[in-house]
Amino acid sequence: NTIYLCDYTPPAYLVEKVDLTFHLSPEKTRVISRIAFKPNPASQSGDFFLHGEDLTLLRASIDGQPVTPDVTDQGLTCAVPDAPFVWEAEVHINPAANTALEGLYMSNGMYCTQCEAEGFRKITYYPDRPDVMAPFTVRINGPHPVLLSNGNPAGAGDGWAEWHDPWPKPAYLFALVAGDLVAHPDTFTTRSGRHVDLNIWVRPGDEDKCAFGMEALKASMTWDEQVYGREYDLDVFNIVAVDDFNMGAMENKGLNVFNSSCVLASPETSTDMNFERIEAIIAHEYFHNWTGNRITCRDWFQLCLKEGLTVFRDSQFTADMRSAPVKRISDVIALRGRQFREDNGPLAHPVRPASFVEINNFYTATIYEKGAELIGMLKRLVGDDAYDRALDLYFDRHDGDAATIEDWLTVFQDATGRDLTQFKRWYEQAGTPRLSVTEEFADGTYTLTFEQHTPATPGQPDKGPQVIPIAVGLLNPNGDEVVPTTVLEMTEAKQGFTFDGLTARPIPSILRDFSAPVIVQRDTTNAERAFLLAHDTDPFKKWEAGRDLARDVLIRMVRDGAAPDDGYLSAMHAMLRDDTADPAFRALALGLPSQDDIAQTLYDTGTTPDPQAIWDAGQTLRQALAQQMQDTLPRLYAQHQVTDLYRPDAAQSGNRALANAALSLLTRLDGGAQAQRQYDAADNMTQQLAAWGCLLQAGKGDQATAAFYDQWRHDRLVIDKWFSLQVVHADPSQAVETCAALTDHPDFNWKNPNRFRATLGALAMSPAAFHRADGAGYALLADWLIRLDPLNPQTTARMCSAFETWSRHDTTRQAHARAALKRILATQGLSRDTTEMVGRILG
Ligand code: ARG
Ligand code: ZN
What we know:
By secondary structure, this protein is of the alpha+beta class. The strands form nine sheets. An eight-stranded mixed sheet has the order 6-5-9-3-2-12-15-14, with no helix packed on it. The structure holds arginine and zinc ion (ZN).
């Protein structure tokens, strides 16, 4: 069942226009399609095939004459004229029974759709592939006050509404929403004067959580005009919040559908991090209007064409709206946490995969986040002006196209004259390159020699050298920068770069701004790391120096039983007391590398990681930090309290982040007294949740846990946090039991993906608990994945990646994990999604 990129063939028929009529009914929705087809001159084949799944075909006709197609569970074939013709069909579908949340389904009584990647085929028979684009007219009949589809309104009356989308689009961008919804309205005028009606549609009761999302939308629209010269192209832009949703959000043309957790926000119910994420996702989906919709993908292998570019654009937007260094550091933390982990395990795949079984399994950190890093490298290599020119050419040349990575790279070649043949390897080779560095200094000349090596990944034993932009700066031993940031362009497997005219041996600052998604391996000392933490002018490297220090300290604690390193403790203390540094930066710098990062580093250096020992070392180190800083913490905590009216902006968020980081350490000294005071006084979720987390960690959370539930039992998104935090902050020896007990709670609605992820996903994200030596973590997750799979394969398959690091552990843990995975695989009728994931994980 594997699909290969190299097997691509153009569609046999193109669609000139689509008319759809829906008669909504929960168990029997009638869908009437009228589709104008014409043979594709670019195709050899005359075979007429329409995708279709879980459909009941009632009738079909061609040019008005009834036909009897050959129907399978994948779709239908039919004899057709060798000339343009009109296909008509009527099908029944059952939205109420659609628990997979693909196609047309119901959530709390409202109808909604999710068609990317291949959900439209569950709505009607259609060539459900992204290279078939057409204008759509949609008529919805239903008793609901709000009836929405893509494009512009084209008429409405009692029990019906019609929509017309003039922009040709693939079926995956189709959307329909119907329900008892209320709007948070606004307007936007584009720079050429188009008046656009904006709406965020929510269930009654959620109206007060829309204002922030609306501001983010307007900011995104302005930003895309100013930075990319891209204007909106319809008269309306609708966003709908849906409670049951497999992913974050979806960029359907003119009708974005959002997981309610990714759009609804208020200071009382959302944390600063929630606000920032919502702003970014609104921007991301809006930016897709050009990078995804106006220019779409030829086939699903090209997914990174729209996702990598759109993630890159939303990161630029966040950097502009907030703090660029903080955004860059946060992105690197996320990349290492999710994408490096993926790239170093059995699920590693290229940014543009060459094959897949189920495309839904490829909405991954590699395609999204590494895909965005490739755009960043390209921009760094060609320069900002050339990047702008290339993007203008891309929009010019490919507007209305279903494009490929080759098209994208050709645009850059044509705009800049640069040969990108070698750069393309970044799209084709999986795995994280290791970049080792040696240095020499003699007679004022300093030489940095780099060697690159990418480990084997599934199906790719050998890799060629890649183009690596290495941003480097050099510092003098007195802390002055002697060579400002310079981008070295590495193309060989081994390559040296020299710097002349130096008076002393410099301290190098390598891979500034994280200029390439690689792992730098260099022998260095903790004294040098502390020096860079104090003096580097590049904020990312400054942060990275602290991170490297902490990693080294933790590794020695876990591996050699060393004590917390004094050099590290005093370097951190100095960093924290530097009031000239951004509080948000200091909060980030105080964080420790993830447990997974430590495990991977140990594994890479020949030590089998013990998740419990890694957790213990983290606890010991945090305790030592708290002790070291005991005089500073109360002052720091007080100094960064925000007294102004709550605003989720970068400045206030940074202060709260630093105060809460201080509170967490303080709790290790005062047993939770300050945390309890903060919990009792909190008037925003950032403060409340941080305080409750501290209390849970200190084992003093019971009272707050009960109070939190009583206060928020009516708010499903806050109750997701209630489920999640209890697992996250449980002692690893108890987290499995805590998680299992929560699955017995009356509010544990396991059919809701948000609630399922909040509970079981939280376990999967707690390494010491999930990888418990007796296998209880694996067994609990496997039980629930087996239960969820028949209802919702997509969410089940995604959560299987919790197991992706299984084979780096000891043989006892490996045996437990293998048994759990095999038990999943042996389940009768297991979905294609989950079968592919477990199969790949087992290797
Ligand atoms: N295109 C969406 C986004 O990144 C994600 C939708 C993915 N959906 C899915 N079923 N795989 O904004
Ligand atoms: Zn996207």
